[in-house]
Amino acid sequence: MSQDEHRWTFLSNHGHVALVLARDPSARVRDIAAAVGVTERAVQRILSELESGGIIERERVGRRNHYRLNNDKALRHPLEANHTVGELLMSLLDPPSRKQANAS
Asked: I want to staple 97 with a disulfide (CB 3.0 to 4.6 A). Which of 31, 49, 79, 93 is the partner?
């Protein structure tokens, strides 16, 4: 791919973080940051925003966090508000990850 093809993506970093959590609800901030390509600080901010927006719930399990996605939450933009977070994520997940995301 050329340099121009790497300048933008269809999903925001918020969407990428949610996708990582759908694949691994116990992912560490450093692992999320590496997968998305942003700093750990940016991931912490995004997680806080997703939590305050009702997209995720954070639960402390031992020394780690476990995240539960609110798959029934409507997407935020008016153009996509008739679809849910779960619909978007399920369309992007591979079959084994879909099963895990549905179970959490």
From this structure: 93
Q: Which residue has the tokens 């995004």?
A: 46
- CA distances 85 to 51, 75, 80, 88, 91, Å, are 13, 6, 10, 5, 10
* pLDDT given for residue 95 in this prediction: 78
CATH class of the region 3-103: mainly alpha
3-state secondary structure at position 68: strand
* Neighbour tally for 36: CB within 10 Å: 19
pLDDT tens, position by position, 6-21: 678 899 999 999 999 9
In the chain, domain spans = 3-103
The structure's pTM equals: 0.86
- Round to whole Å and give the CA distance between 47 and 43: 6
Q: Residue 26 above 70 pLDDT?
A: yes
Where helices occur in 1-104 by DSSP H, the ranges are 13-23, 29-36, 40-52, 85-92, 95-103
